[in-house]
Amino acid sequence: MDLTSPSLTVAEVAARFAPATGYLAACTMGLPLAETLSAQRDDLDRWATGSRSPVDYGDVVEQARASYARLVGVPASRVAVGSQTSAMMAVVAAAAPDGAEVVCVDGDFSSVVFPFLQQAHRGVTVRSVPVDELAGALGPSTWCVAWSAVQSATGVVADDAGVRAAAAAHGALTVCDVTQAAGVLPVDASLWDVSVGHAYKWLCCPRGAAFMTLSDRALAELRPVQAGWYAGRSVWASCYGPAMDLAGDARAFDVSPAWPVWPGAAAALDTFSRLDPADTWAHASGLGDELCRRLDLPPQGQAVVTWADADGAAAAAMSRAGLTVSARAGRVRVAFHLWNTSEDVEAVAASAGR
């Protein structure tokens, strides 16, 4: 896609998904667009006849990088590609000075937290606090604050502005996971030092396409410790050592892509980059609040509605009703995305006897 590509509406994109009444689990795994399925099938056919090449895949990866960059509001030169968020977080954790303090959210997804905990042997300490106390927990000893823009277990949207202001006051590095945000919530990655995100949830890509954005500070302080041939200034001139000439931008943090994932990912990202994320969020969070009203829950203003379900009874009732939801941390999660409608709200409410 180039900058002249036409914009798309929520209704136009919703029509590109197969009918999936009852699928309410985008927070676990997105559904494929028609364009994604077509691209994946075409890739398989071309692979079968030997008409695919690594160079072809390189072009596809660059298309995906450019689309993701537009979607999160940064130049493509700020975007690194990878396959897992935890591996990208590990790059940040490896850069923590000995004895550094990192502040995380209590109950945040493990990929955001575990890489930092693995640095305990160097004296790196991790403090976890409730998400609504994150900004106030930062202090002069904080080297880094790492959090998810949208909390996986609860769907809560973090106070991004407050966290960034506190981090700026104390000189802390900001690292935000957008896996549960990009594709449904407006995201501006230029506001953080680092963002990481896997695209298989709300961006509806095949699993294995992930991204990292880096600010000037991050590019200066972080080392591309997982650099390989794909991180070279010239990819095809970087296949053998011992000389190392890494890219001069975020591509130095690239990880060699899993080729078959990227044709479908490029198609999905092209589509999502032409949506107004404010419209997507209004649609998804609007359905979320509609469900809250039907269940007599306080409005949550979220695309993911959760409530306590320690024994799994609510999730089981919805499953019996033919609905696909998810459960995490003793709560049931009902997620609304582009393919969902008020009919799904009514089906959830009926399963709950409302």
Assigned CATH class of the largest domain: Alpha Beta
Structural class: alpha/beta
Please state roughly what percent of the residues sit in beta strands, choosing from under 5%, 5-15%, 15-25%, 25-35%, 35-45% or over 45%. 5-15%
CATH architecture of the largest domain: 3-Layer(aba) Sandwich
What is the ordering of alpha helices and beta strands?
A: HHHEHEHEHEHEEEHHHEHEEH
In order across it, which strands form the biggest sheet?
Answer: 1-7-6-5-4-2-3
Q: Unreliable segments (pLDDT under 50, ≥5 consecutive)?
A: none
Q: Whole-number average pLDDT?
A: 96
Q: Which fold name corresponds to the CATH topology of the largest domain?
A: Aspartate Aminotransferase, domain 2
